[in-house]
């Protein structure tokens, strides 16, 4: 099995090294095309107005000055002589649950793979944002991901479906199990903070935060909060019969 890896935290991210160790429990044919720099929050964006510059690290590791979506396209269409059988994106620093998936470059990497017709999975690791040491328990994802992935690979997803996996903020032995969940809903607390540079010109930071949300049982948020691995199918098929029928009734 040939596997392509990418992420949004960059080629030097600890989560990407973790992902490669996970992938090597599944296959020896592992390739990496990842962003040269942190691309968190770039979602499913393409670099259309600037050239893509790629740095070859070795025969199977490449750093690209582009987004996670660019990386998957370059990996599948240019770097690899034959397409991969599987695409893994991550392991992200922090969860990608609820509305986070709309911003996530990690999820976007798996999304692009799915659009290319390749089974794709996004992997993210929860951690405590209030912990100043910023300790991220990647050992949990590394220990729990391989058996989960093996089971999911044995039963391919329907066309147009990617799988978003989030690991809880605990030691591997403390995880309570795995739950198949629905995408939750979150209220973001994004704020704009104005600062001044050395010449007194203003510049701005988006300050990321979260407000309280009504967390539904069965959602990805509830599962990760309660110590479970959350496995969430995300549907990219926008022609679903239910949606078309609903629109037709609305317009009748």
Give a written overview of the molecule.
α1 links the parallel β1 and β2. α1 packs parallel to α4 and α2 packs parallel to α3. The chain starts with a strand and ends with a helix. Helix content is 27%, strand content 25%. The chain has 252 residues and is an alpha/beta fold.
Strand order of the largest sheet: 3-4-2-1-5-6-7-11-8
- Give the low-pLDDT segments: none
Strand percent estimate? 25-35%
Q: What is the overall number of helices?
A: 6
Query: Would you tell me the structural class of the helices and strands?
Result: alpha/beta
Averaging pLDDT over every residue, what do you get?
Answer: 91
Gyration radius (Cα, Å) is: 19 Å
- The strand count comes to 11
Largest sheet: 9 strands, mixed
The 3D shape can be described as globular
Order of helices and strands: EHEEEHEHEHEEEEHEH
Task: State the helicity in percent bands.
Answer: 25-40%
Kindly, what is the distance between the CA atoms of the first and last residues, rounded to a whole number of angstroms?
49 Å
